[in-house]
Amino acid sequence: MSAILEAVVAELSQKDTSEYNGSAKFEIEGEGSVYLDADGVRISDEEADVTLKASLETFRGIFEGNVNPTMAFMTGKLKIDGSMGRAMALASVLS
Question: Is the terminal CB of the chain with fewer CB neighbours within 10 Å at N or C?
Fold first, then answer.
């Protein structure tokens, strides 16, 4: 397994995701995917309600609070496939 994906799993596992109802996949360019649902966070390429695609740098900025997810989306640094409602709900989980 990729050390980068393992680090993303560790970072997301520290977030309070209990309020998020659904599934999300974080597709990191050139690395793979991390999956989040009610069972927790894991490295997986399962189908999800929403898929977020970005570079590691962009995701790192979002997770650390230095990059606004909405601005990343508006500027094309973050791409979203699937439910926009689920994507919006993730914003509060990630901040």
Answer: N
Domain boundaries, the chain: 3-94
The DSSP line for 14-36 is: TS--TT--S-EEEEETTTEEEEE
Please count the CA atoms within 13 angstroms of the CA of 47 that sit on its side-chain side: 1
Return all residues near 73 (Cβ < 8 A) that are at least 6 apart: 79, 80, 87
How do residues 38-78 score in pLDDT, each as one tens digit? 999 999 999 999 999 999 999 999 988 899 989 999 999 99
The answer to whether domain 3-94 has CATH 3.30.420.40 is no
